[in-house]
Amino acid sequence: MATRVLVVDDDPTVSNVVSAYLTKAGYDARVVADGVAAVEVWQQWKPSVVVLDVMLPGLSGLEVLRRVWGWDFGDSSTVTVHVRRLREKIEADPSDPRLVLTVPRTG
Fold it and tell me: Rounded to two decimals, what is the model's pTM?
């Protein structure tokens, strides 16, 4: 039996590409486009792996994590910390980034 992978993303281009690669690699992949469907499919299908977008309609990816796994990880600024550390490694002046730019609230 192939490993079950649930791909959760509201961008069909992203979810279809990820799903196609997973299927080609031998995984049993399913795609849903919102947080509510992600919780429902997880409860019924019990995937081994979930590829989860954070910004979703219905329920955010963070809320899906809380509901499905009961996981409250606290600070949601993890990405910001990683971007800052990356900038410190590659930017000439991390406080004035030229290589790694971010756009707030775009996912």
Answer: 0.68
The H-assigned helical ranges of the chain are: 12-24, 35-45, 61-69, 78-90
Residue 57 contacts residue 35 (beta carbons within 8 Å): yes
pLDDT (tens digit per residue) in 21-61: 999 999 999 999 999 999 999 999 999 999 999 899 999 99
Q: What are phi and psi of 34, to 5 degrees?
A: -150, 165
Q: In the numeric block, which tokens belong to residue 85?
A: 């550390």
| Contact predicate 10/61, CB 8 Å | no
Q: Return the percent helix, strand and coil in the chain, to nearest 5.
A: 45, 15, 45
Average pLDDT value for residue range 83-103: 84
CB hemisphere CA count around 42 (13 angstroms): 21
